[in-house]
Design brief:
Length: about 100
């Protein structure tokens, strides 16, 4: 689908848009990327799908590389208050009490 919504919503660098799918192969041996291939490949930095870099006017081809702290990610501590699935919804509590009757 390539809409990029998952990349925009991800607060970390674990998802990114790229063209690596073009290197897909059918055998495991053909999928090995050797170090020399990586060193000799073209470097094409981009701010594509990094709206915080585009807003700041950062040019990836003409400046110093930014550390992950300078890039401007969403803070990760927003989810420290509660773990996923632990917040009880009143309908869950009511349903459990009705089943036990």
């Amino acid at each position: 689908m390539f809409c990029g919504l998952c990349v925009e919503a991800c607060p970390y660098d674990c998802l990114f848009m790229g063209s690596g799918f073009e290197q897909g192969r059918y055998s495991r041996e053909d999928m090995v990327i050797h170090v020399e291939d990586l060193r000799n490949s073209a470097k094409n930095p981009s701010t594509f799908y990094r709206p915080q870099l585009e807003k700041s006017g950062y040019d990836p081809r003409g400046g110093r590389p930014l550390s992950w702290r300078e890039v401007g990610r969403e803070k990760w501590d927003w989810h420290r208050r509660e773990k996923a699935g632990l917040r009880l919804i009143e309908t869950d509590i009511d349903g459990a009490s009705e089943e036990s009757k």
